[in-house]
Amino acid sequence: MPTPPSRIVGLRAAGTCLTVELTEPVPRVLHWGADLGDLTPEDLTALSLTAEPAILNNAPDIPRRFTVWPTEADGWSGTPAHHGHRAGTATAPRPTLTGATHRTDPHGGGELQLQLTDPALGLDITLTYTLDPHGILTADAVLSRPAGTDTTPYDLSGALTLLPLPRRATEILDFTGKWSRERSPQRRPLHHGTHVRDVRRGKPGVDSPYLLSVGVPGFGFRTGEVWAVHVAWSGDQRYLVEQLPEGAGVHASALGGGELLRAGEIRLAPGDTYRTPRCHFGWSANGLDGIADRFHRHLRARPQHPRGARPLVLNSWEGVYFDHDLDRLRALADRAAAVGVERFVLDDGWFSGRRADTAGLGDWLADPTVWPHGLSPLADHVRALGMDFGLWVEPEMVNPDSQLARAHPDWILGPAAGLGPTARHQHVLDLARPEVVDYLLKSLDALVGSYGIAYLKWDHNRELHEAVHAPDDRPAGHAQVAALYRLLDAVKQRHPGLEIESCASGGGRIDLGVLARTDRVWPSDCNDPVERRAIQNWTVQLLPPELVGTHVGAARSHTTGRVTSDTFRMITALFGHAGIEQDLARCSEEELAGLTAWNALYRELRPLLHTGRTVRADLEDEARVLHGVVAQDGSRALYSWARVATSPEGQSGRTALPGLRPAARYRLRVRTELGLPSFHQVAAPPWLTAAQEDWLTLPGSVLATTGLPMPALNPEQAMLIEVRRQD
């Protein structure tokens, strides 16, 4: 049971900790980062003493402190934890601590809950920190108006959870992107002022900040101290890191995030509450791989995390597009089953009027002109072949050219003055209207129940501009996300075994809010393996590979026109929840044999790929890529060595395999089932030739410390290296 805590409390797990002093009026953060160990009362006194900064010239006459809920009342001139007003008044928050509970878990971690109140604002705040056994610190807050307070609504303009950073954290890494080029990293030094990333798209977007990291200069995948935050919310967001000349108490800067609120969006009357999105914070002394490992463990520990083997998928989109024909799709299913596919997904084009993307959204019935007997003939055929049947839907959207839009124009989200332009020929349904969610739930329930659907690919193909409720034009973004979550929860409750993929023009809605209700993500509409290498490499910075869809497309990429080798495409798609995205009827027997071998390899390796630690090498040349997965006990590993472009250097030099133990001894071999890459060399390094013929025994000191002289590959080539420890 939670107990009243002592003056200084801490949450500790997996080498990290949060330490808070229950000062008044508002507790302050003494430390977040590396575990400080078991502290004696004298140690805690010293920690408190050294948490007091100097009083500077031209400054408040008391020391500035960085509290758990920083406001101007603390002398904090940065972004406040919350701000708002009551009809233009009550604009100076002064919360005070009224209670606290603290519990620790026997396996590490625990929870600290703080109750704050602000009588002048008529606002109560409950702030909760939860540290899991893997070192991920989750923070959220509930802001509420007690009954009996001033009846004038409190307009909440913003609410963020913030944690301090030390002076050595001076380099920022976050992400940008566009359609088919999601999660492109960008780095910059941390200067004075605020680095803020606002998301105003109604979803995280293809340019999502995704995971905002701040670290010591030059931090990489394997080295350097890093602090990071992810906002688990599927709508408008705000990420920030902020450094003021006077610092943040004894700390240097602040890191945090939350929901980006529009004016008038959250109006709290007496009895109302607002819960901030959960912000997940991580710290690592071992670079970005350390952060990724914490998040992967955190997600894998969830009760709803997929436990079984992740089935090999075939998605019909790049195979047939809108050209739906039962005989053609049955033939595609036959070939899919022959190469070992375990889940067949019918993509866009199956419902009423849907011969192109200009019509039909909202009318969730099989098109009678194409499917006179519904989808059962195909679904039954797929299951008879031993595969699951999945279906593409986009429930939140509607085409103006649809029966739904003509019958219920008032269900469309937009201003009273009239709708703005369509995007991708569609508008957004107002999910805050109960009748809309009721219609969608009935439609989805009927589809899943009628056709025995095991999997929904749930798409979201446009941004939410002018997302307001008519007739008063109140902002709708928050209500839209909350209603989406309720809809997803209801669908899952009615169909407990159903899996759902979060897709949004590819990777436009990837966050831990939607992933609390879905089972995997589609990281990009681009299956070009050159682009996918980078996209997948950074998607797994937050998500473990088993949650990331990775498909083999045709030799000529649908999105870029680039032609790549089968081996390169298959190796790239191996490191995730694998699938196929092409018309198998156009494949030669040789290509089908390659896909069959790839499927067998995926089935063999997915227990490792979907449970191990993701590792990535820090290489000075971005044209070369070395990444892999190492078993949690270190007994086995699989690596991909790839080249995406040419380089000035001819030799790669000795390259260490990340994640292995120098003191261990290993056997190594090159997996050749998918073929060998095209080499840019006259003769291979001798170890490579030996490892193609049989297992090669090498000490860990060579593999993990000095490294192997890697072969010179031609551009757009890859190879697989398997390693097993000798016990």
From TrEMBL:
<dbReference type="InterPro" id="IPR013785">
    <property type="entry name" value="Aldolase_TIM"/>
</dbReference>
<dbReference type="InterPro" id="IPR031704">
    <property type="entry name" value="Glyco_hydro_36_N"/>
</dbReference>
<dbReference type="InterPro" id="IPR017853">
    <property type="entry name" value="GH"/>
</dbReference>
<dbReference type="InterPro" id="IPR050985">
    <property type="entry name" value="Alpha-glycosidase_related"/>
</dbReference>
<dbReference type="Pfam" id="PF16874">
    <property type="entry name" value="Glyco_hydro_36C"/>
</dbReference>
<dbReference type="GO" id="GO:0004557">
    <property type="term" value="F:alpha-galactosidase activity"/>
</dbReference>
<keyword id="KW-0326">Glycosidase</keyword>
<keyword id="KW-0378">Hydrolase</keyword>
<dbReference type="Pfam" id="PF16875">
    <property type="entry name" value="Glyco_hydro_36N"/>
</dbReference>
<feature type="domain" description="Glycosyl hydrolase family 36 N-terminal">
    <location>
        <begin position="27"/>
        <end position="269"/>
    </location>
</feature>
<protein>
    <recommendedName>
        <fullName>alpha-galactosidase</fullName>
        <ecNumber>3.2.1.22</ecNumber>
    </recommendedName>
</protein>
<dbReference type="InterPro" id="IPR031705">
    <property type="entry name" value="Glyco_hydro_36_C"/>
</dbReference>
<feature type="domain" description="Glycosyl hydrolase family 36 C-terminal">
    <location>
        <begin position="629"/>
        <end position="721"/>
    </location>
</feature>
<dbReference type="InterPro" id="IPR038417">
    <property type="entry name" value="Alpga-gal_N_sf"/>
</dbReference>
<dbReference type="InterPro" id="IPR002252">
    <property type="entry name" value="Glyco_hydro_36"/>
</dbReference>
<dbReference type="InterPro" id="IPR013780">
    <property type="entry name" value="Glyco_hydro_b"/>
</dbReference>
<feature type="region of interest" description="Disordered">
    <location>
        <begin position="77"/>
        <end position="112"/>
    </location>
</feature>
<dbReference type="Pfam" id="PF02065">
    <property type="entry name" value="Melibiase"/>
</dbReference>
